[in-house]
Amino acid sequence: MSTQKGVTLASGVKISNVWLFEHEGQRFLFDTALRLERPALVRALKQAGLKHGDLDAILLTHRHSDHAGNAAWLRDELGCSVMCHEADARILAGEVPAPALATTSIPLWARPICAVEDHFPSRLRIDERLVAGPWRFGFEVFAAPGHTEGSVLYYHAATGTLFSGDVILAGPATMRAIRRLTLADAAFSEEPQRCWAATREFLSKDMPVQTLCSGHGALLAKDVRAKLRALRT
Predict the structure, then answer these.
(1) In a designed cystine with 171, which of 96, 175, 176, 188 is the match (CB 3.0 to 4.6 A)?
(2) For a pLDDT cut of 70, what percent of the chain falls above it?
(3) Backbone angles phi, psi at 12, to 5 degrees
(4) Cα 200 to chain center, whole Å?
């Protein structure tokens, strides 16, 4: 696992990113990868030295299985709570049905993964249902509905760190070199136009982001604000 600015990327997890964030003795895990990638995630967490009781919370950026797939298992393994936006929490808990993506919109490379993941039980108990606004530990939650109904960004003001999930991407899942930032992928989004509008509303705040950790692609710690500003239009 490689660490920069208090953020560690779980190495070996291929499809989506899992980030470990440490600040002033507190530790948070952002997203949990596909269930199919659990062996790689286990190796990464062992490399980081994480054990039961070490995490303050798991924060999910949204409900998709490549981000929430191991949340229930990690709650038991590490003895921590799982948080996400209330809209996705209701879907994960099975209280309301999940909106369906058009199968034809999903890229060919992703269809086998989606088919396998759909065979796993999807219900997940969320320990704390979040809403937009300031949260504990110096985080602020910004809603960007449209990728999923409960997709969010997490901003940590003291360190200038932004966890953007799939709302702002630093590259596709298979590419680690950042060429440009992009907004949520329409093929995987429930209401892409709505998500893009909400994201641009967030970007208009021009937060002093120093480090960007997205759901796919590499960590970005250079010229971050300039690259975020370029997404406004």
Answers:
(1) 175
(2) 85
(3) 90, -15
(4) 18
Q: What is the rounded CA–CA span in Å between residue 83 and residue 59?
A: 5
CATH class of 2-229: alpha beta
Q: How many CA atoms lie within 13 A of 221 on its CB side?
A: 9
Q: Domain limits of the chain?
A: 2-229
Q: Is 233 exposed, middle or buried (0-12, 13-18, 19+ CB in 10 A)?
A: exposed
CA 100 to chain centre: 20
For range 183-199, the mean pLDDT? 94
Q: Which of 14-23, 57-66, 102-111, 129-138 bottoms out in mean pLDDT, i.e. has the lowest?
A: 102-111
How far, in Å, CA of 94 to CA of 103, rounded? 21
* Mean pLDDT (whole number) for 112-120: 50
Other CB atoms closer than 10 Å to residue 196's CB: what's the count?
A: 19
Rounded Cα distance, 68 and 66, in Å: 6
Kindly report, residue by residue over 49-68, the tens digit of the pLDDT.
999 999 999 999 999 999 99
CB atoms near residue 120 (< 10 Å): 11
Q: Measuring CA to CA, how many Å separate 165 from each of 20, 150, 161, 168?
A: 13, 11, 13, 7
- The residue count for the chain: 233
